[in-house]
Structure formats: C-alpha cells, structure tokens
Amino acid sequence: MAAAEQVKPISYLKSHTTDIVNSFDAGQEEPIIITQNGEAKMVVMSIDAYRESRRRVERMEEQHAFMKLVALGNKEIAAGDAVTEEAFLADLDKD
C-alpha cells in the first residue's frame, strides 16, 4: 500500500475494523492514520509495531540518560570535582 492509502477517515475505521485487524494479522506493518473532518486524529497500528516503537523510545530514553551522565561527569572533571580510581577504590575499602 502506498502512504496515501494509509490515511483513512474515521468512518472507514468504524465500518472496516475487522478488515483492519485482519490486515495487521496478515503482516501489514504500516500504521493507518485516521482523520476526522480532514484532520489527522489518531494512528492505528499492530501490537507488534506498537511494542517495537515503545522499545525504541525506551532505548532512546536510556541513551539520553547515559549521555546526560557522561556530560555531567565531564563537567565535574573539568571543574576538578573528580577523584582518581585509586582514591575511589581506597574509599570503598574503608567500609
């Protein structure tokens, strides 16, 4: 299906729900954009596509958090607020 064929009015969703579900069961991967009064209002996608998009978002959030930690570490190093590995390990051994 072409991208233009994936934009459907809400009336199509109402009258073809079973067909839409069956198309996803048959392997359709592209989401369907549902419009109301000519304006995009929602997206219908397979559960597999939804789960994959959630996994991607979670990975991106984890990567973003990691990058923030690296940036914070670099900022602390630049400010002289870092300790050597030896000092860190020695401090751990005290406990």
Automatic annotation (TrEMBL):
SUPFAM superfamilies: YefM-like. Belongs to the phD/YefM antitoxin family. Antitoxin component of a type II toxin-antitoxin (TA) system. This is Antitoxin.
